[in-house]
């Protein structure tokens, strides 16, 4: 009886040890840090300085008197000398008349196209398909409530129907189409007569680029002030406010060269006069423009920079005071999260027996199921990432875009089995 009791106690003890060991392994595995990875990719970075400045152009305001202004030319369009650029209306209904004129002009143009192309040899079966496609497109627009192109779609369908009648030898179609064009032209002439009675045309006094953006700076921010401009005077200029003349209905930019005078913080910018730099706009206009640095002046804790350009004038007619990035260097490398970079310190001894600490920057990648470190050079440090490149660009095992990189794993080393 005693032996049976001892054996039972031994078995219970062994069972408890087994359960304890199992729980210990379970908790150890639960606390073990799981492998977290991501992928490296190629990244381009513009490095430069933020600048605030003003666009300076040779401009001429266009003056007129009238209650309602209608632009004939688009923003940034070229205007010839004595060309009509703006219509001024004394009657508000003239704006509606002007819209009707534009619709009629487009309609007549399409009908004349249908008449001129209808007498040519045309594939009848293809015309049938085009008519069906036009009907389907028109129905889709109506069903979807999209009326923005409804007029154009209806005119296109009408043109297709007339061309189809020509193809099948309907001799009445030509007469109907010609009569319709004559009727539309008569309507257009009548609308033009009524519009001329309440409108005044503003002509371009000289050739130039048209802009409706009159801001009052036209006679202030002129190229004449560039030679005497300083950082202090530009600071004062940027703090000014100007209002456009009440009679101004637009302006002409009469010189293809325009300027950007800007202030940069600090004097150690590395900018050199005569070189071309990329200015990155990201406010009212989004894009990059290559401009030549005409003059640079280091004054106190600021740098005055004056850039010039002979392109992108039509894109920047509405801009005046702008904050941009002046790009002085473009970097390209491999972008990695900050967690992916590891610093390994090595103690080295030179020929004189002097020891020193050398840091090696490594990124560990997963190759098959093991981790392997790739040494890199850090090009740029940001808040959330590093831009790096392989220390040895010719190495077979160098870091490449698309590699699976390890973010967090304790005790990482070359050859460690990580999965």
- Low-confidence spans: pLDDT under 50, at least 5 residues? 28-32
Give the helices and strands as they follow along the chain. Answer: HEEEEEEHHHHEEHEEEEEEEEEEEE
Strand % is 35-45%
Helix segment tally: 6
Number of strands: 20
The overall pLDDT average reads 84
Question: Which strands sit side by side, in order, in the main sheet?
Answer: 2-10-13-12-11-14
Shape: flat
Q: Which range best describes the helical content: under 10%, 10-25%, 25-40%, 40-55%, 55-70% or over 70%? A: 25-40%
Number of domain modules: 4
The biggest sheet, with number of strands, parallel, antiparallel or mixed sense and barrel status, is: 6 strands, antiparallel, barrel
Radius of gyration, CA atoms, in whole angstroms: 37 Å
Q: Determine the N-to-C terminus distance.
A: 53 Å
- Helix-strand makeup class: alpha+beta
Which keywords apply here?
419 residues, alpha+beta, conserved putative lor/sdh protein from methanococcus maripaludis s2 fold, 4 domains, 6-stranded antiparallel barrel, 4-stranded antiparallel beta sheet, 6 helices
């Amino acid at each position: 009886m005693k032996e049976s009791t001892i054996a039972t106690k031994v078995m219970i003890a062994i069972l408890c040890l087994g359960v304890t060991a199992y729980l210990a392994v379970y908790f150890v595995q639960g606390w073990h840090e799981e492998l977290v990875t991501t992928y490296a990719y190629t990244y381009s970075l513009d490095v430069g300085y933020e600048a605030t400045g003003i666009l300076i152009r040779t401009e001429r305001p266009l003056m007129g008197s009238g209650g309602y202004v209608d632009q004939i030319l688009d923003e940034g369009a070229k205007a010839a000398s004595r060309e009509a650029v703006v219509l001024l209306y004394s009657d508000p209904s003239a704006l509606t008349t002007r819209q009707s004129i534009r619709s009629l002009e487009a309609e007549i143009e399409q009908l004349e196209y249908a008449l001129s192309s209808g007498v040519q040899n045309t594939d009848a079966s293809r015309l049938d398909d085009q008519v069906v496609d036009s009907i389907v497109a028109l129905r889709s627009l109506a069903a979807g409530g999209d009326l923005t192109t409804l007029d154009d779609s209806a005119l296109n369908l009408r043109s297709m129907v007339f061309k189809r009648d020509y193809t099948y030898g309907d001799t009445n179609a030509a007469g109907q189409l010609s009569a319709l064009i004559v009727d539309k032209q008569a309507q257009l002439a009548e609308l033009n007569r009524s519009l001329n009675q309440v409108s005044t045309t503003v002509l371009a006094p000289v050739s130039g680029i048209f802009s409706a953006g009159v801001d009052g700076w036209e006679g202030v921010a002129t190229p004449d002030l560039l030679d005497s401009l300083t950082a202090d005077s530009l600071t004062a200029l940027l703090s000014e406010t100007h209002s456009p003349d009440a009679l101004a209905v637009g302006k002409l930019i009469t010189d293809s060269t325009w300027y950007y005078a800007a202030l940069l913080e600090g004097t150690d910018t590395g900018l050199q006069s005569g070189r071309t730099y990329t200015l990155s706009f990201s406010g009212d206009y989004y894009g990059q423009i290559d401009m030549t640095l005409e003059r640079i002046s280091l004054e106190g804790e600021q740098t005055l920079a004056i850039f010039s350009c002979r392109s992108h004038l039509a894109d920047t007619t509405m801009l005046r005071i702008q904050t941009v990035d002046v790009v002085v260097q473009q970097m390209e490398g491999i972008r990695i999260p900050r967690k992916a970079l590891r610093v390994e310190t090595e103690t080295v001894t030179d020929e004189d027996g002097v020891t020193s600490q050398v840091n090696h920057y490594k990124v560990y990648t997963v190759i098959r199921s093991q981790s392997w470190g790739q040494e890199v050079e850090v090009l740029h440090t940001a808040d959330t990432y590093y831009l790096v490149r392989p220390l040895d660009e010719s190495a077979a095992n160098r870091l490449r875009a698309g590699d699976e990189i390890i973010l967090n794993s304790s005790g990482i080393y070359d050859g460690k089995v990580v999965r």
